[in-house]
Amino acid sequence: NVLILDFGSQYTQLIARRVRELNIFCEIFPFNQIPSDLSAYNAVILSGSPFSVRAEDAPQPDLSQIRGKKPLLAVCYGAQYLAHFSGGEVAPSNIREYGRTNLSYIEAGELFFEGVSEGSQVWMSHSDTIKQLPTNGVKLASTKDVENAAYRIEGETTYAIQFHPEVYHSTDGSKILENFLVRIAGVQQTFTPNAFVDDIVAELKEKIKDDKVVLGLSGGVDSTVAAVLLNKAIGKNLYCIFVNNGLLRKNEFQNVLKQYEGMGLNVKGVDASSRFISELAGESDPEGKRKIIGRVFIEVFDDEANQIEDVKWLAQGTIYPDVIESISVKGPSATIKSHHNVGGLPDFMKLQIVEPLRMLFKDEVRRVGAALGIHADLLGRHPFPGPGLAIRILGDITPEKVSILQEVDSIYIEGLKKAGLYDKVWQAGAILLPINSVGVMGDERTYEKVVALRAVESTDGMTADWVHLPYDFLMNISNEIINKVKGVNRVVYDISSKPPATIEWE
Ligand code: XMP
Does 3.30.43.10 match the CATH number of domain 193-379? Predict the structure, then answer.
């Protein structure tokens, strides 16, 4: 197990992902919350930071339990921190060193750089530079502009690098991390999807014993993988609830329910469509719609959970990025949902929480899902927002609009699948616009709805580029939609990226 101390760098999660790719488990902790018991950790990595070590309010953790006691790799800010407080010197550099550069010198015979040659591209992002190495520092590498691009400390298993091995542009970054973690620190590469499944199933059995657990399935990857893991651990004591809010894709409720039953899950499908649709009537404000859907979901889920006698646990599909966010250097984000605190907690929220995926990144959840034998179709599904089609129908929601959008969306998504484009797109969907436009069909003028199609590439939804779908594909889909869906006479394609646009229109 590897401990990553976060100084607030935008790249800290990437360090963790690179380490995990080496089949090594790691955990991120903020620099000011170092675990008191370090016995489980075989190595420590210090992240970069937006701070300068020379700033008064810069992070200055006490590393006395780590330095010289555990193998230590300090990245960027970490490297400067070690230098600045241990007899070296850090000063502002004349030029801000940012972007790609190459290692122009590498000290020969060092395990740390084994398999890495001079000329190797690295990624720099810093405005201070290490002018003088700390006491007992041995220079290991330089670039054209940075004399001390890497060093180690004689007599300790301490290494420091000014560049970022975790970003993709550092070509040998993973190799360097592997050299440090595996060859120098001797960490075992045993964190595989199968090993994770064995460990977590044993842990869940031990923790939950014969108690009953309730879990809300959404049809998405996270809740599905969480359910299958729990099912493996506790079988029929897992009660899954899948709510139809009437805003799912066409036939989604029936299809996904069938798939869940086929997987041996103890699942109850609750069709609350008419309740959601009637509560939403007349609401056209995006946040208003989200609040109604959130509230009604909680009411429906609560009613169902209350029917399970003696249930003790609520399972959730929380994944690691959410956990990191909640314990981050900047503190828990201020977005704790307001409705949780209004009028007392719903009954199911008084349950103990179990989160089998809380240590996994999204791609790891998919790999664990594959190891569990979950069908690739389900694991490869595009993200779909909780409020569903409600936020893709601009303006107020009526059953007619829902059914028009379901038809359009289904033609679009099926079309992407048939054309082999579905897996190349991160998320796709159709949006029903609140305007009519003039058209002509046969000899008749029409005055009907406009739909927009959206397809984006992204890794995490934080930024996104619109996808250059082939014109022929767009032409065929547009024809099919206008010919088959009554009430639509115009199709447009959204060519906006995020930022400044967002993925959804509401
Ligand atoms: P935006 O529109 O903010 O979307 O660029 C980013 C990602 O978040 C999804 N999204 C939501 N998911 N509830 C959800 O569960 C919501 O209210 C919501 N709004 C947006 C969106 O589909 C995209 O994947």
Answer: no
Q: How much is the pLDDT for 434? A: 97
Mean pLDDT calculated for residue range 475-504: 97
Assessment of whether the complete model's pTM goes beyond 0.95: no
Question: How far apart are alpha carbons 288 and 279 in whole angstroms?
Answer: 11
Classify 352 as helix, strand or coil.
strand
Confidence (pLDDT) at 462: 85
179 vs 329, more confident:
179
ipTM, interface predicted TM-score of the complex: 0.99
pLDDT of amino acid 332: 40
| Domains of the chain by residue range | 2-184, 193-379, 398-493
The rounded radius of gyration (Å) of the Cα atoms in the chain is: 27
Mean pLDDT computed over 388-407: 98
Mutational test site, ligand 1, from 338, 427, 504, 506, max ligand atoms within 8 Å of CB: 504
Output the residue whose Cα is nearest ligand 1's atom 4. 503
- 345-375 residue pLDDT tens: 577 778 999 999 999 999 999 999 999 999 9
Residue 273 marked ligand-binding = no
Residue 342 Cα to ligand 1 midpoint, Å, equals 24
The residues annotated with a catalytic role in the active site are 76, 164, 166
* Fold match between domain 193-379 and domain 398-493: no
Is ligand 1 within 6 A of the CB of residue 383?
Answer: yes
Q: How far apart are CA 247 and CA 112, in angstroms?
A: 54
Residue 504, ligand 1, Cβ within 6 A: yes
Q: Write down the architecture of domain 398-493 according to CATH.
A: 2-Layer Sandwich (3.30)
Q: Is 503 in the pocket of ligand 1 (CB under 6 A)?
A: yes
Is 221 annotated as belonging to a binding site?
A: yes
- pLDDT for 344 equals 54
What is the number of the ligand 1 atom nearest to the C-alpha of 458?
24
Q: For atom 11 of ligand 1, which residue has the closest CA?
A: 385
Q: How far, in Å, CA of 324 to CA of 14, rounded?
A: 12
The response to whether residue 480 sits with its C-beta less than 6 Å from ligand 1 reads no
218 is in an annotated binding site: yes
Cβ(386) to ligand 1 under 6 A? yes
Ligand 1 centroid to Cα of residue 359, in Å, is 22
Nearest to 230 by CA among 207, 252, 249: 207
Burial of 387-416, coded b for 16+ CB within 10 Å and e otherwise, reads bbbbbbbbbbbeeebbebbbbbbbbbbebb
What would you measure as the largest C-alpha separation in the chain, in angstroms?
Answer: 89
CATH of domain 2-184: 3.40.50.880
